[in-house]
Specification:
16% of the residues lie in helices and 40% in strands. By secondary structure, it is α+β, with helices and mostly antiparallel strands.
């Protein structure tokens, strides 16, 4: 079987993974981005002619808690339910 060198994730999958990674068990959460838009003249084509261009940088991903479910949000209680105390059993060493 060939070795995989690339994996793809949907925004919903990334949001679910981040909710689980942070140990969040309640609330409606959405994945947001901090972004910076900059303009510059950038060389383009075979002649490297300078053309006005926009550069969008995304320096941070943000988990934001919402008041209600909307858009691409997830309910943490559904994707990462807290384990109930009834299912936790302490093992005692003898």
């Amino acid at each position: 079987m060939p070795e995989l060198s690339q994996f793809s994730f949907s925004p919903q999958e990334v949001l679910e993974l981040l909710i689980k990674k942070q140990g969040i068990h309640e609330g409606i959460w959405a994945l947001r981005f901090q972004y910076i838009l900059t303009g510059a003249d950038i060389p383009y084509g075979k002649t490297n002619e300078l053309v006005p261009s926009a550069i969008l940088r995304i320096p941070k991903f943000v988990l934001q808690k919402l008041e209600a479910e909307k858009g691409n949000s997830l309910d943490a209680a559904k994707v990462n339910p807290a384990k109930s105390n009834a299912t936790k059993v302490k093992r005692v060493k003898k």
